[in-house]
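FAQ: What does a ligand-bound record look like?

Like this one, built around flavin-adenine dinucleotide:
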Amino acid sequence: MLLVNEYMSTKTDVVIIGGGPAGLAAGIYTSRLGLETILIEKTALGGQVAVSPFIENYPGFTMISGAELSKRFIEHAELMGVEFRVPEEVIKLELSSETKIVKTNKDTYEADAVIIASGASRKKLNVPGEKEFAGKGVSYCAVCDGSFFRGKVVAVVGGGNTAVSEALHLTGLVKKLYVIHRRDDFRAEIALKQRLLDSPNVTQLWNTVVERIEGDTTVRRLVLRDLKNNKQYEIEVDGVFIAIGYTPNSKIAADAGVAVDKEGYIIVDKRQETNIKGVYAAGDVTGGIMQIGVAVGEGIVAAMSAFEHVTGGWYAKKKKLKAVRIDFEKFKEKEEHEKREEEKSLFKFKL
Ligand SMILES: Cc1cc2nc3c(=O)[nH]c(=O)nc-3n(C[C@H](O)[C@H](O)[C@H](O)COP(=O)(O)OP(=O)(O)OC[C@H]3O[C@@H](n4cnc5c(N)ncnc54)[C@H](O)[C@@H]3O)c2cc1C
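The answer part, i.e. the structure of the complex:
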């Protein structure tokens, strides 16, 4: 059985794990540099961006929907020659030899370099209303969505560094901010904590948990429980930011010997290289500032580093690179076809 698997494995220069901004940016670079690149994505290409309603802070776009931005990333990567494997899940990595083995639920790949861009999942409160109002008043990112709540009443749930940073970002924007924490003090850095406690429009609700999120078309109120007297009560809010931490999607990498920090984020150097030669990581899975621009930048650094590793650098000729021919005509045809389809539907609408 093992032999058959080995015989059937697909050989490539680079495997990228994850089809979010970090993985797609890395793919655009490795592929354009002439490396055969396979990108494996377990759900849908685009990553978290695809589910972000609006993006107002990605340079070059004052306002773009997450769906449109991710569509552009995907088309760009496709045009440069990245081969997508979707939906396909990486389930095991073997990284100790020079040739890296990537096992998925469908195939086995052998590559000279691996770029891990598997992102991080935001922890959920798991209370009624959270799922229903996601994107309709429930948010997991103040930097991303804070400006939609300018002059409104919102709540932040959590008490660590993430929650306090998110709350500080909101204090200058909103009319009133509740910070709801199940303990009686923040677990955040003292300087951050003090700045928040000094903010005039902040009310702390200590020893309190959220039991339900309620509303109609959007969030209207939170049903809370005071853990000290066990009483239930409600507060009126226009939105709630859940900031109880992230879980980096790094278990498979850690199981294969990739070094992670105490929270599980993959540790990288300035070249985005992990403790294992030829293995790179980029984007949210490495922690730090979790934004699209950062993920894209890290993906590019990882790609350039992987290129050096696989080829030995521009003049080393360690590896014969594939010729890169970008079929702009095919892309133009596709764009024109889409435009015609859009015009047709607009025409129908006008009728
Ligand atoms: C609702 C929301 C709104 C946001 N708005 C903004 C904003 O306005 N501006 C901004 O800059 N940032 C925003 N962000 C943050 C931004 O989306 C992330 O920082 C960015 O997507 C990180 O990119 P990434 O490629 O590292 O990870 P992700 O986008 O999380 O992509 C990782 C991908 O890896 C895949 N994957 C994981 N494990 C495996 C596996 N084992 N096998 C195969 N595939 C795997 C996942 O399915 C996922 O598609 C927002 C995030 C959310 C959730």
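Follow-up question: can I read anything off the structure? Yes, for example: The longest strand covers residues 108-116.
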